Structures are given as C-alpha cells and as structure tokens.
# Entry
Amino acid sequence: VPIPVDVVLPCLDEAGALPGVIATLPRGYRAIVVDNGSTDGSAEVAEAAGATVIRETRRGYGAAVHAGLLAATADVVAVLDADGSLDPAVLPTAVDMLASSDLVLGRRRAESWRAWPPPQRVANALLAWRVRRRLGIAVHDVPPLRVFRREPMLRLGLTDRRSGYPLETLAAAARAGWRIAEFDVPYRPRIGRSKVSGDLRGAIVAVRDMSAQLRAAGA
Ligand SMILES: Nc1nc2c(ncn2[C@@H]2O[C@H](COP(=O)(O)OP(=O)(O)O)[C@@H](O)[C@H]2O)c(=O)[nH]1
Ligand SMILES: [Mg+2]
# Structure
C-alpha cells in the first residue's frame, strides 16, 4: 500500500494545465491546489478534476505554498508547480528517497530550450552555484519540486511569502542539518503564461526576493 502524500500545487491562472497535472498524480497522492485570485477559473477547474482547493488571500508563491502546508494532513508533502512543466509521475521516486533524506529536490533537466530559456537557466545555475559555495550543500537547482515531511518543515518556520521561498527552504534546511538529496527530473515547456521567471515584473521581484534570502543566509 503506498503511503499517503499530499501534493501542494501553488496556482495562479493555471486552468489550462491543472486537469493534466491532477490526472497524472500517482495513486494515493492528493492534490491541494492553492489559488490566490486566479481569474481564469482555475479553482473551479481544480475542483472539477477532484483536487482539494484552498483559497489564500495573500498573493505570492511562498504564501500559497505555506497555506498548502497548513492545509495538508499527510506526513509526507510534495510541492510541485501547477503549470504542467513537471511530471507528477516522478514523485514516488522522491518519496522513496525520503528513507535516507529529509529534503528531496527535483533537479530540472530541460527537454528543450523552450522549456527553460537561456536567461532563466543561467540565472538559476548561478544561484545554485552560490548556494553550493556559501551554504555548503551539493545542489544544482533551486527547484520548484520539493518533497519532505510536513511537521519538520513547518518547524523550520519559513517567513518568505514570495519568490524567495524556495531558496529560504534550502538555507533553513541546511542550517537545521537536514540531509538534502537531489534527483534529475525532466523539465517541459509549461502550459500557459509564466508568472515568475518568464514575466518581467515577476522576474524583477524574484531577483529581489532571492537576493534578500542570499543576504539573510550570509551567502
Ligand atoms: N497561488 C499562487 N501561485 C503562484 C503565484 N505565483 C506563481 N504561482 C504558481 O507557482 C508556480 C510557478 O510559477 P511559474 O509562473 O511557473 O514560474 P516560472 O516557472 O518561474 O515561470 C505555478 O504553478 C504558478 O501558477 C502566486 O502569487 N500565487
Ligand atoms: Mg513554471
């Protein structure tokens, strides 16, 4: 019998991608879609596809993931983008890796240049290099796919509620002495429009948020 896993899907206007993502979750995995203010019917689409839908008033990726963690009840939680860029079929591999790790990261391996355009790819590689060098953890991505146990994660007490959240996750986990493991996952072109790295305003906010987290971590 597979162990129950709650899958937190932060979602801002992902109505086009949600049905496919939810339908390909492995058996025993529950979708928790966290919506803040989608105007494309994402919440209704997610509900119709069988997901649990949480509505969060505060905008931001970190606010959405945090609300999903609070709504989750399973011991094991996976965080995954709701845009179709990541395949939920890889999740059981990550869950298995929790036997010897506290945080499992899906290192994105782009299927094409369109899946991960050069500017975003280079920015992320640079960020990961700084994380390796200054935080001393062997990671090659600051990734949107993360698997961990819910209660210890809540005890890390993350405070970022926007785009610095994934980096704060790595810094806090490293500080707490967590065993961090990485595995390769295919990164596909997303369905719909980017809200963060592929959007000018989103990217500016992300660089600012990530820089603040790097400073906070002394990196
Ligand atoms: N609820 C919520 N989800 C968000 C927000 N910003 C981004 N997301 C979701 O977070 C995931 C990553 O965002 P995405 O636009 O794919 O960023 P990119 O991968 O850098 O292009 C997607 O599932 C988005 O729908 C937000 O403010 N609120
Ligand atoms: Mg994306």
